[in-house]
Amino acid sequence: MKVNLKLSAAHIIISTSFIIASVAFIVSLHNFNKDSRKLKAMGENIASTILSNAGDGIFENPGLLKEQLEVYKTIPNIIRLCVRDNAGHSLAEIEGNSDFINSASLEKKIYLSGKTIGSLYILLGDADLYKKYYSNFMIMHEIETEYLWDYSKKNITKSLQSFLNNKMLQNVEITLPSGNSYVHLNNKSNDDYVLHLEKPMEKNGIFLGTLKADYSNLEKKHTFYLTIISAAIAIIFLLIFIIMLYKKHKLDISNIILKTNNISKSNLSDATIEKIQKAILYIEQNYRQDISREGLARYVSLNVDNFGRYFKQYTNIRINDFINELRIKEATHLIESTDKKIIDIAYSVGFENIGSFNRVFLKINKFPPRNLRNRTHSCNNRV
Fold first, then answer.
1. What is the pTM of this model?
2. What is the pLDDT of residue 73?
3. Burial of 379 per CB tally in 10 Å (0-12, 13-18, 19+)
4. Hey, is 80 helix, strand or coil?
5. Residue 377 confidence (pLDDT) above 70
6. What is the CA radius of gyration of the chain?
7. CA diameter of the chain
């Protein structure tokens, strides 16, 4: 039988929300890594240019090799270029600006006549982002130098505070020529920094102090947080959707079972149903006695095997389980309402030994009879 999994409006809303959150996560993840991808693509182009312009013997001449690398030092993104031999020893290297917020590296194998003779290591920084922060720093440096020349601490503090409001600046400090701190402010909304800049403050040839600033890549941090949040939201909506789908599926299965039972009952003849009902009435009146399937089948004039199948088809429970549920129901009542011994109660409701009683009681009630007796006595004592 086919299970009906038609989605309700709630399912559609939850699934749509999951898709939106997932798209937000993918976009955030893409944006989070875009700077590294851009730098690595630049590195691939630089490596390709270096390797294509180098002659076959250039790697055997470290001096000539370094001259070749020096040409690329003018590229503002270069932090380091290094050519290594197969053992990892540096043959030639140059270093550029190291004050970068974002960086990415790559290493390319160098081949000669089909054999690996070394590698080219490239470390690049995001010069555009560095220029943005350095420009901000230089504006601040110019303004604060004028205020420091006038020795106006109030104006310096007010001005630095306005720079801190843009959030990308985390710490800023002005120290005097003696090295003592004159003004020091920090942005509590940030908890780390990735770029430190400092520059002497001079006017008319007089050294006034030093401006120091720490910058944070706030844009990347926000992108990181957005990535984490959107991923968490997507997971939550997915779990809600799965739970809702599971509950609907479970309900559909229950309805199918119920319909199947109804169909099964409808397949029984009226005469058979009358005999099963007669057997049920007999069990309800005599479950304290020894009752067998064979005896019941004879009582209602049915074949033993057919009787068991018809009974399960009509009640959705086996004969022995039906009898045991009646016995345990009465036993539970007697344990709660009387002081009779449990073993006496077991025999009185139709069990032949205490072991079988304990096992069936635990199976049906999910706890042993002794626990029920203790709990009942405890309640009575409190009363």
1. 0.39
2. 76
3. exposed
4. strand
5. no
6. 42
7. 122
